[in-house]
Design goal:
The complex is a heterodimer of chains A (404) and B (382). Chain A has 404 residues and is of the alpha+beta class. Helix content of chain A is 43%, strand content 14%. In chain A, the strands form three sheets. A four-stranded mixed beta sheet of chain A has the order 1-4-5-8. A four-stranded antiparallel beta sheet of chain A has the order 2-3-7-6, with no helix packed on it. A two-stranded antiparallel sheet of chain A has the order 9-10. In chain A, a hairpin with a 2-residue loop joins strand 9 and strand 10. The radius of gyration of chain A is 23 Å and the shape is globular. Chain A starts with 6 loop residues before the first helix and ends in a 14-residue tail after the last helix. With 382 residues, chain B is an alpha+beta fold. The radius of gyration of chain B is 21 Å and the shape is globular. Chain B is built from 13 helices and eight strands. Chain B has three domains: 7-114, Butyryl-Coa Dehydrogenase, subunit A, domain 1, CATH 1.10.540; 120-233, Butyryl-CoA Dehydrogenase, subunit A, domain 2; 236-379, Butyryl-CoA Dehydrogenase, subunit A, domain 3. Classes of the chains: A alpha+beta (404), B alpha+beta (382). At the A-B interface, helix 7, helix 8, helix 9 and helix 11 of A face helix 8, strand 8, helix 9, helix 10 and helix 11 of B.
Chain lengths: 404, 382
């Protein structure tokens, strides 16, 4: 147990700091550029130094560094400290680029990776369907090869960012005769076409992060398939040994908790800070137990990953732990705010603006439920933990063969 | 950054685990439970021979010179194994001497404690549930001159003279295996900690009907009993409490994990409706919820122990948080474990009760979770 980073890494940190001091915020001519342009130029410099896109080969615009989780963590710490632009976020960087690197054709890598890294290409993920949520492999969106094009018909739902995306990576049923998982292909579909209609889904908290996507004779060229026909399921499960950010995930829970403590210190009841209420204190500290346990679990996983060792069953629990903490934070915030708990977090005149004060926590009270379901419900997470983590038998009634 | 235990530490846990598995399987724990004896000298002797009695005692006094994290890892493994014996109280007695003892006191006791020649324990609670040093009000007897002790204390500090004798009276409940101990470190208002020899005049023990029958407790009655004050006792007492909290958290973590494992094993064996009950999602999810409650606690007690050893400013608060959180999680898991076993889980014959009761000890000893949460709130300035 040693929580310092050691000499070699601290030297790396010094080098990184001096780069950041000289490059961000932009100096000289670059300072005059529009913000987005300045950020783009800065990212390019950071890539040349090997600080960003470390797992992406140089030929596609990455910096192609040896995997080193500790360097990755130091870079995140220092960039965040300097408020410097990090790698582009989003589903394209998170999911598509690693998948293309592992399974894509050479031309696909060249065509899509550099643009995704620069933010010029924005992606959405066409997985869930109205009838295929937890049981994703039962999906029914059909793609048929007609001449040199795929003709796609069906409906996707919960598609984050579809209204802004130029491309969708999409799971479609292309081999209806094959069994369930074997009949799916992974297609890349341009969003700007007549065959695609995007309709936002308004959420209970007033926001609209997700969409429905209707595909009616939508088209994409025949070669816009990743992997072979019928390999889509395994392609969608491709993971890369990149620098996993297990500390960052827990850091969000810590920040949310610290925000909640400040809220309890500022909120007043009978003229006194709410944090003086013994019941609120007990619950805050009870919650902090979960938050710190999650935080240190993240540090332990980080260490194990950096050493190339398996952290064990805890890796399967991260999502459910974050979700549980989100629920506890939300419920406690409602009790801290008292009568504001009847406020509508949705502004009446305009949808989607970010609420402040009690309104922010009210929105979180609802949004935490959306997060809980995104990427797999708690019940599905529990199946995964029980089956993969503890060797319990698979679901008795689960139908794993039919495409219906 | 290396937030992980070392290979040596893993080996320490593995060695203890194998010893407990071989020498003290659940059938043996049950014998001790049923006999009311709660004491297995042969098992303890084996642990002593492995060096476990002196894990944290510095090498110059014949111990292994390890840290609190190592001690906590040993506690986790002993908790997982449901091991009987005086490890917890004995280790705290060693720590008390190391943290607050004079050179002469260390020389006299640590080498004997380290090799198990003498058995140590701690009396850290006053009547009325006063577990925290800040709440102790019973000092040394007036007849022996509390004021004179104050003078003596400054003499020790200036001249290095180290032993001052006094007398103690009053009742100290919840002293682990006091009747078998040679040396008891007694929490005392003012000087903090004082050494009492079990065989001395005016020292009486009476067994307490404790729920965890393999870690028996006694009520200690002192009637003008001779004692030696630890010169650094006032500073050592809160540190000793923090160490105790961390060790209890580690023990409860081990116990909670054992209960999860027992339930998972049972779900893979027990059949109903023609299949093993682990097939049923209702039970599978209950078992996973138990595991999810327990498993993240590992980092929490590791961090608290590491802080005790290396980041002392953070130690008191993280120790309080770890004890409160892990013991409460283990309590819930122990109740769920009874349910997960169905009717058999409620019987005396089912092994669940052995760990269920171990958790009850860990949760209450040194103060209930709510008390430590409130302490943590105050320490944060909230």
């Amino acid at each position: 147990m040693d929580l310092s980073y050691g000499k070699e890494y601290e030297e790396f940190r010094v080098e990184l700091r001096s780069f950041l001091e000289s490059s961000w915020p932009p100096k000289g001519d670059a300072a005059e550029l529009p913000k987005a342009e300045g950020a783009k130029r800065f990212r390019q410099q950071a890539i040349e130094r090997g600080y960003l896109y470390r797992s992406v080969p140089k030929q596609y615009g990455g910096s192609e560094q040896e995997p080193d989780a500790v360097r990755g963590q130091i870079i995140r710490e220092e960039f965040s400290r300097a408020h410097a632009p990090m790698e582009m976020r989003g589903i394209g960087m998170m999911m598509l680029v690693p998948t293309l690197l592992e399974r894509g054709e050479e031309w696909q890598k060249q065509k899509f990776i550099p643009g995704t890294m620069s933010g010029d290409i924005v992606w959405c993920q066409g997985y869930s369907e109205p009838g295929s949520g937890s049981d994703l492999a039962s999906l029914q969106t059909r793609a048929e090869l007609t001449g040199d094009e795929w003709l796609i018909n069906g409906q996707k739902i919960w598609t984050t960012g579809a209204q802004r995306a130029q491309w969708m990576f999409c799971l479609c049923r292309t081999e209806p005769e094959e069994p369930k998982h074997g009949g799916i292909s992974y297609l890349l579909i341009p969003m700007d076409q007549d065959g695609i209609e995007v309709i936002p889904l308004k959420q209970m908290n007033g926001g609209a992060d997700f969409n429905q996507v209707f595909l009616t004779d939508a088209r994409t060229p025949a070669d816009h398939i990743v992997g072979k026909r019928g390999e889509g399921w395994s392609v969608s499960r491709t993971t890369l040994k990149h620098e996993r950010n297990s500390i960052g995930a827990a850091a969000q829970a810590v920040m949310m908790f610290e925000g909640l403590v400040r809220f309890a210190q500022q909120a007043k009841r009978d003229g006194r800070p709410v944090i003086e209420d013994p019941l609120i204190r007990e619950r805050l500290l009870s919650l902090e137990g979960y938050v710190r346990a999650h935080e240190y679990s993240g540090m332990r996983q980080f260490t194990k990953n950096a050493k190339g060792e398996d952290p064990g069953v805890i890796t399967l629990m991260n999502k459910i732990n974050s979700t549980n903490i989100g629920h506890m934070v939300s419920k406690l915030a409602l009790d801290i705010m008292g009568d504001d708990g009847m406020l509508d977090p949705v502004p009446r005149d305009e949808m989607g603006t970010i609420p402040s004060g009690s309104r922010m926590w009210l929105s979180q009270y609802m949004y935490s439920l959306g997060i809980a379901t995104a990427g797999g419900t708690a019940n599905i997470q529990k199946n995964v933990i029980g089956e993969r983590g503890y060797g319990l038998p698979r679901d008795y009634y689960a139908n794993r063969s039919s495409g219906k | 950054m290396n937030f992980d235990i070392s290979e040596e530490q893993e080996l320490l846990q593995e060695t203890i685990r194998q010893y407990v598995d071989n020498e003290c399987p659940a059938t043996r724990i049950r014998e001790l439970f049923d006999s009311g004896e709660g004491w297995d000298p042969t098992f303890w002797k084996g642990l002593v021979e492995m060096g476990v009695a002196g894990l944290v005692v510095p090498e110059e006094y014949g111990g292994a010179g390890l840290e609190l994290l190592d001690l906590a890892l040993a506690c986790e493994t002993l908790g997982y194994g449901g091991a009987p014996g005086p490890f917890f109280g004995h280790s705290l007695a060693c720590l008390a001497l190391m943290l607050g003892g004079s050179e002469a006191q260390k020389k006299k006791w640590l080498p004997r404690l380290a090799v198990g020649e003498a058995l140590g324990s701690v009396a850290l609670c006053e009547e009325g549930g006063a577990w925290q040093p800040e709440a102790w009000h019973s000092g040394v007897d007036d007849s022996t001159g509390a004021a004179a002790l104050g003078e003596a204390r400054s003499t020790w500090e200036s001249e290095g003279q180290d032993i001052a004798s006094a007398a103690l009276s009053g009742t100290r409940p919840f002293v682990p295996h006091a009747s078998r101990a040679d040396l008891i470190v007694v929490g005392t208002a003012g000087p903090g900690l004082a050494l009492v020899e079990r065989e001395g005049a005016g020292v009486e023990c009476e067994a307490y009907a404790g729920v965890d029958r393999v870690r028996p407790l006694d009520t200690l009655t002192l009637k003008g009993a001779g004692c030696e004050v630890l010169p650094g006792g006032a500073e050592a007492a809160p540190r000793l409490r923090d160490a105790g909290l961390i060790l209890l958290a580690a023990d409860a973590f081990g116990s909670g994990r054992r209960l999860v494992d027992m339930c998972v094993e049972y779900a893979k064996q027990r059949e109903q409706f023609g299949v093993t009950i682990g097939h049923f999602q209702a039970l599978k999810h209950q078992l996973v919820s138990m595991a999810v409650e327990m498993e993240p606690g590992r980092g929490l007690f590791w961090y608290a122990a590491h802080a005790f050893d290396h980041i002392q400013d953070e130690a008191p608060r993280t120790a309080a948080l770890a004890k409160a959180h892990i013991c409460d999680r283990a309590m819930q898991v122990s109740r769920d474990a009874v349910e997960a076993h169905g009717g058999i889980g409620f019987t005396w014959e089912c092994d669940v009760q052995l760990w269920f009761k171990r958790v009850m000890f860990d949760r209450t000893f040194l103060g209930r979770p709510a008390l430590h949460r409130e302490r943590a709130a105050q320490m944060a300035g909230w």
